[in-house]
Amino acid sequence: MNPLAVIGGAVVVVLVLIVVLFRAMWRVAEPNEALIISGFHQDAVEGVAESLGFKIVTGKGSLVMPGFQRVRYLSLDANETELDITCVTTQGIPVSVKAVVIYKVGDDFASISNAARRFLDKSQEELEGKIKNVFEGHLRSIVGGLTVEQMIREREALTEATRRHSGEEMQKLGLVIDSLQIKEIDDTTGYIKNLAAPHAAEVQKQARIAQAQADREATEQEQQAEALKAAARRETEIKKAGFQAEMDRAQREAAQAGPLAEQIATQRVVVERTKVAQLEADRTEQQLQAEVRKPADAEAYRQRTLAQADRDSRISRAEAGAKETELAAVAAAQRTKIEAAANAEKVRVEAEAQAGSVEAVGRAEGEARRARGLAEADSLRAQGLANADAVKARAEALAVNQDAVIAQQLAEKAVEIVGAAAYPIGEIDNLVVFNGTEGVQDAVMQTLSKGFAALQALRATLNVPVTGNGTPASFSNGQEPVPDGLGVASGREG
Prior knowledge:
- This protein is mainly alpha-helical.
- Among the domains are: about 20-75, no CATH class; about 80-190, 2-Layer Sandwich (Tetrahydropterin Synthase, Chain A), CATH 3.30.479.30.
- Helix content is about 70%, strand content about 10%.
- The protein is built from eight helices and eight strands.
- It has helices at about 5-25, 110-120, 125-145, 150-155, 155-170, 190-350, 355-425, 435-460; strands spanning about 25-30, 35-40, 55-60, 60-65, 70-75, 80-90, 95-105, 175-185.
- The strands form three sheets. It has a three-stranded antiparallel sheet with strand order 3-2-5, with helices on one face. Strands 6-7-8 form a three-stranded antiparallel sheet. A two-stranded antiparallel ribbon has the order 1-4.
- The model is unreliable at about 465-494 (pLDDT under 50).
């Protein structure tokens, strides 16, 4: 056999034995547990009395010599215990307090050491019994100094007082309280229920009030909605009635459109015929004015103008001669006066030249202006007298020639006027005479009488008196007024 193989096999066996032995001796603490190693003398642990004589390992591993050392495990998990304790308040009222406590072994070595000495070999039921005993005593003591109202209203204070009073004892046991909660407070006498009754009644009252108010508001809203609906229906009916009325009116208007259009057309025809008749009458009147009155007025105006021109010419020549003589005399007198005044002023100015030449010149100019003004005034007065005489002579000439002109015009137009009056007889196609020759003579005489009547009316219109035989009569004052239609007025030019 190869010695090297034997040696190698022996080494491997030894190594395997060493590994197996190490694994058998090595113990590792889990995160939620602590290793309690007892046997041999162990190093002292901070905060733990040296007389304990055991080793605490958490979160790591350690060698344990079988037969010489013993290792045990202490759980660091959280535990939960429910409490149901009957207490008596300071009022003497028994109450039932239900709470829940969550606790665990402390993480420090002192807590682990205390818990290991007390609960390492104990069951969970024993641990819970000790915890209940601790909390029951403290809770009964605290509740005995409180009233039911304080317990209900200050539940957090009750919880904190219980935690504070039991904390020291729990620390001696190596335990810490993670949570303490008061779940329920109840009593068998009904005191708590009676405390809540007034509040419940008030809440019920407020609820009923709120419900009634809500019902009232809902009813008001429903009524308002119904009112709006009724108003909408009324508006709809009104609009329908209005539309129906418009339709009926349109139908009636359509039915009457034909007769109404016919009546309107007839009315327009009558209006147009009336306008035509009026225009025809206006045309006849204008024709009469143009053919009869205007020529007469023009001829009278021509004759009057010629007479006035001749008279004015004679008057003007006479006035011009008189004026020329008067003006020459006035001018000579004024010239002499001015020359004399000028000479006097000249002498005075020369005599007073040293005393005030400027003042003398001013007075001389003033006198000269005054002299010229007097001369102009005299000239204007003479012209005014001449014009007055001319007007008077023109009026006398007009009064003398006016009657002759008007009479001449009437005489020239007499035949036409009588012919116009007899024109209707000439337009008659068939004339029925009932009394023979006498009837014809009567018709002719009536026609001639109408012509002479028209002539007399025209003379009367022109303000010229007519005698019984149709000739102009003389006026008592020797003047004959002429109407404005002929363009002549008594005592003025047209």
